[in-house]
Amino acid sequence: MGDQAADTTLQFRPRFDEDGLITAICVDKQDNAILMVAYMNSEALDLTRKTGLAHFWSRSRNRLWKKGETSGNMLEVSEILVDCDQDCLLFRVAPAGPACHTGRRSCFYRRVTNEGLEMIEE
What we know:
Largest sheet: 4 strands, mixed
Number of helices: 2
Strand content: 35-45%
Distance between the termini: 39 Å
Order of helices and strands: HEEHEEEEEE
Helix content: 10-25%
Number of domains: 1
Radius of gyration: 15 Å
CATH superfamily: Phosphoribosyl-AMP cyclohydrolase
């Protein structure tokens, strides 16, 4: 059971995990399609809030990165939502191109089936 005061506060107190990260889910502000999931540290969150463009922490490269810094496919943030216990963020974004590094609109382009995976039509 959650802490009722924490669940109803109007103070933004993001809860980063033991690695200093918080999950960030990005959805298209037009149709709420899930585009991608990434992680942020406090610096990425601060930069995102200051610039209006999504910044993340790359766990594989161990560095800060701005979405679209090489591809141009940036994510303009229009709204940030936080879940009840403030350990997950939801970003409503306007994408400037595909969100997935594969060139697809969304990173979620495969469905899990009993036989394995199948492609989802976009």
